[in-house]
């Protein structure tokens, strides 16, 4: 694209505005990383299906997979917003633990197994999550401390406080209404936890892609100074985004309590990194300004499907780490090459760039 | 008639540096005024002071004849003034329409609107009309701005500014990073903006460009306005003379006082 006058047109004539180039949806879709990563997911599923047949490609297997990623999916929504602002939130796992301890303590003191007890716990978990997130956001936006440091600190503090509150011993007093919700309830044929996660994903997607809040999230990550100059209250927005991430961690805490029937004080140390990996694999740029909830969903499924597949095929599950790590690095590499190509003005669909990654690099030299 | 915007005796110091020293400025409606001066002459500082980006130590502002104080860029926007910064302040990942309405999204009607949903169709139609009016070279309204040429980006930033400014647009070095064709497009755009009745303040280093589009030229030196001259009949030599102080007795005096 350039402003060079088309041949045959007198240079003085202003270039006529063409009907805005409506790139075919296919072409535009092909340029989204989430689409080619979806292709990777499909290939993985096809490979395992070929190897293990219906054992892998069964409803129960995918039901299990979706249950395994439900909590991460909820966290992933908040993380997607945060990373699009070119931030990072390392504290989500610890905030989840802290919130689940708060919720468990509240439910313990209220007593009983009914929904009213659970509601008190849910309220407590959400409030605790939002408070942690807002604190993170405040320190990042107002005190100008880098997000990596703020949330690294919060990771440590939240986990530490959770251990102080419990003496390091998990609380098991989760009302039955909550654990039953996970075990027995299916909504529209989907187990309850993944259903909740799905709702959160859909709401997150709508907010990110259709509302002003989402638009500002992209703008802040794309050009913070520019966003300030057009009058966006960037500080307030950052605080809200981190509070959203905290709220997601609070809701994740409720889901984790329902899933395991206990707090998981020692069990969330890698949650933050797993969620970040999923978000980045899904095409959300670590440099900000770009990303989608759909990509995050795909990014969540890749490690989960690999894990389930390895178990069924009989490969040691340890290989999952090897595979996920490789996909992560490859995803970011392709993302960067695609970005560089876009800056050079090439509109070559990115999955072709992937196949010809070496060729694509040459003209840059 | 009083000038559209007038500044009298603006001063502002940063530590020991007097960035603005009794600087004055004025512009009429529908006029292109070029603001020139060497690096560090105070052009950008003056524009910041005029648009609420920088509080001044002393001096008065008059808007349409009435004294005003402008506390924030937001207030300047509401008065009908917009600045196109040198870095354009566009979000590279967003498309031209999204950029144009950034911070001023048109909400959808009813409940959805109050929930923060945006009327994309209306924004797009308005943006297309805005670009068409300026005879722009922006070809795609769906591609991210980051993938576009410098000239196209400049144009998007200008269209955004004039869509919201009905009084004055400040352009900070709009042609600094552009090629020949793109520069001419921007200069044409400036003329069209003026023809719409919007005043343009053009900061530039390029004397030929300034002489080409400006109606009046105000020369800054050492934080103050040292000369105002009509573009017609003025030569590059005269401008350079005023900029460097060779022509101006006032600056010589000021220098003597300073030492």
TrEMBL record, chain A:
Pfam families, A to Z: BPD_transp_2
Domain of life, per lineage: Bacteria
One of the record's GO cellular component terms: plasma membrane
Keyword Lipoprotein in annotation: no
Membrane topology: Multi-pass membrane protein
Keywords, alphabetical: Cell membrane, Membrane, Transmembrane, Transmembrane helix
Gene Ontology molecular functions: transmembrane transporter activity
Spans traversing the lipid bilayer: 35-57, 69-102, 114-135, 147-165, 185-208, 238-259, 265-286, 293-312, 318-334
Localization per record: Cell membrane
Protein name: Sugar ABC transporter permease
Organism name: Paractinoplanes toevensis
From TrEMBL, chain B:
ABC transporter domain span: 5-247
UniProtKB keywords: ATP-binding, Nucleotide-binding
SUPFAM superfamilies: P-loop containing nucleoside triphosphate hydrolases
Pfam families xrefs: ABC_tran (PF00005)
InterPro entries: AAA+_ATPase, ABC_carbohydrate_import_ATPase, ABC_transporter-like_ATP-bd, P-loop_NTPase
Molecular function GO labels: ATP binding; ATP hydrolysis activity
UniProt cross-references to Gene3D superfamilies, sorted A to Z: P-loop containing nucleotide triphosphate hydrolases
CDD domains for the chain: ABC_Carb_Monos_I
PANTHER family for this protein: CARBOHYDRATE TRANSPORT ATP-BINDING PROTEIN MG119-RELATED (PTHR43790), SUGAR ABC TRANSPORTER ATP-BINDING PROTEIN (PTHR43790:SF8)
Protein name stated in the entry: ABC transporter ATP-binding protein
Organism: Paractinoplanes toevensis
Higher taxonomy: Bacteria, Bacillati, Actinomycetota, Actinomycetes, Micromonosporales
């Amino acid at each position: 694209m350039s402003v060079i006058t088309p041949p045959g047109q007198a240079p003085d004539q202003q270039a006529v505005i063409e009907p805005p180039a409506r790139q075919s949806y296919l072409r535009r879709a092909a340029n989204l990383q989430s689409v080619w990563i979806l292709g990777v997911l499909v290939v993985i599923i096809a490979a395992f299906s070929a190897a293990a047949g219906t054992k892998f490609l069964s409803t129960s297997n995918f039901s299990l997979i979706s249950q395994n990623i439900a909590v991460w999916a909820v966290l992933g929504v908040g993380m997607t917003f945060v990373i699009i602002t070119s931030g990072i939130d390392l504290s989500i796992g610890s905030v989840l633990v802290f919130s689940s301890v708060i919720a468990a303590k509240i439910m313990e003191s209220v007593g009983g197994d009914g929904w009213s007890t659970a509601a008190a716990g849910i309220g407590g978990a959400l409030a605790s999550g939002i408070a942690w997130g807002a604190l993170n956001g405040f320190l990042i936006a107002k005190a100008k401390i880098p997000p990596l440091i703020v949330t690294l600190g919060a990771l440590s503090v939240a986990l530490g406080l959770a251990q102080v509150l419990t003496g390091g011993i998990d609380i098991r007093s989760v009302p039955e209404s909550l654990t039953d919700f996970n075990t027995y309830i299916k909504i529209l044929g989907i187990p309850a936890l993944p259903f909740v996660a799905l709702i959160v994903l859909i709401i997150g997607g709508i907010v990110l892609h259709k509302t002003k809040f989402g638009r500002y999230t992209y703008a802040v990550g794309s050009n913070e100074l520019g966003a300030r100059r057009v009058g966006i209250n960037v500080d307030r927005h950052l605080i809200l985004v981190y509070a959203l991430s905290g709220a997601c961690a609070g809701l994740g805490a409720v889901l984790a309590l329902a899933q395991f029937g206990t707090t998981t004080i020692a069990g969330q140390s890698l949650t933050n990194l797993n969620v970040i990996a999923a978000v980045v694999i899904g095409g959300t740029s670590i440099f900000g300004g770009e990303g989608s909830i759909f990509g995050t969903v795909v990014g969540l499924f890749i490690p989960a499907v690999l894990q389930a597949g390895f178990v069924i095929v009989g490969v040691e599950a340890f290989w999952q780490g090897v595979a996920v790590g490789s996909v992560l690095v490859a995803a970011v590499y392709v993302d960067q090459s695609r970005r560089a190509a876009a800056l050079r003005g090439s509109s070559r669909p990115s999955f072709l760039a992937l196949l010809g990654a070496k060729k694509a690099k040459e003209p840059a030299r | 008639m009083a000038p559209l915007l007038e500044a009298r005796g603006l001063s502002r110091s940063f530590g020991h540096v007097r960035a603005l020293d009794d600087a004055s400025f004025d512009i009429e409606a529908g006029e292109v005024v070029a603001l020139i001066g060497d690096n560090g002459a105070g052009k950008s500082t003056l524009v910041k002071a005029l648009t609420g980006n920088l509080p001044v130590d002393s001096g008065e502002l008059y808007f349409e004849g009435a004294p005003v104080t402008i506390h924030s860029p937001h207030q300047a926007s509401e008065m009908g003034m917009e600045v196109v910064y040198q870095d354009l302040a566009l979000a590279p990942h967003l498309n031209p329409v999204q950029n144009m309405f950034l911070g001023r999204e048109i909400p959808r009607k009813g409940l959805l609107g109050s929930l923060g949903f945006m009327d994309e169709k209306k924004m797009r139609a308005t943006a297309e009309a805005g670009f068409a009016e300026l005879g722009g070279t922006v070809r795609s309204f769906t591609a991210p701005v980051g993938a576009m040429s410098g000239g196209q980006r400049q144009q998007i930033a200008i269209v955004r500014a004039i869509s919201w400014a009905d009084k004055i647009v400040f352009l900070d070095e709009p042609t600094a990073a552009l090629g020949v064709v793109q520069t001419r497009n921007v200069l044409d755009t400036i003329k069209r903006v003026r023809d719409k009745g919007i005043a343009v303040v053009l900061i530039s280093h390029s004397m030929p460009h300034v002489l080409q589009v400006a109606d009046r030229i105000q020369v800054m030196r050492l934080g103050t306005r040292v000369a105002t001259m009509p573009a017609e009949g003025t030569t590059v030599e005269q401008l350079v003379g005023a900029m460097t102080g060779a022509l101006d007795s006032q600056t010589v005096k000021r220098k003597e006082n300073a030492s």
